[in-house]
Amino acid sequence: xxxSVKLLLTALAASLLFAAAVSTASATRxxxxxxxxxxxxxxxxxxxxxxxTVRCKVTLEGSFHTRTIAKVARALIGAVTKxxxxxxxxTNGSGATFNGVERYNGTTAPNTLPWHLTYESFTGTxxxxxxxxxxxxxxxxxxxxxxLCTGQFxxxxxxxxxxxxxxxxxxxxxLTPTEGRNSASLIRRDAGLACPxxxxxxxxxxxxxxxxxxxxxxxxx
Length: 221
What we know:
13-stranded antiparallel beta sheet; single chain; 18 strands; 3-stranded antiparallel beta sheet; mainly beta
């Protein structure tokens, strides 16, 4: 009788472990709590190493195409439909998103929106996820440093990867450009003595549901 109970418990434990393994292995998608998002940096940095760092408050708004994201690298998952630089907050220069409204080099910048968001990767040991990385493409912005550079940045081939760090509950704590994958290329110099061939985007921003302060949650399904 004791042996039968022991065998039964062993079989039950094995079944539970097998079910958990199958569940984890089949979890090929991510779920987002809301599709409409706003990312805000109180001081997003555009860095030219050894020369100057321009800092501005920047807000990006957009949406995921669906609330379910397949874990497939470079799959198109959403778009940035609004980009705003609060130009009066800038230090060491100024910036402008090419959104058809903001002023750049004395004129209204053209509208290059929407910008593409694609899924890149995740880190962590399943079923726990530590970060989810997305990639921003087709962006365009201008940087002005008086007397030095007025230039447009963001080529067709530029890719900026940003990692969303997650809490234990899956809420996005911060969105940060990834070192080594955070560069934007100069595509045209409009004024000034010289512009850097490449600038680096740095600093952490916050991500919330568009229109309020509700956090965005990402979970494995």
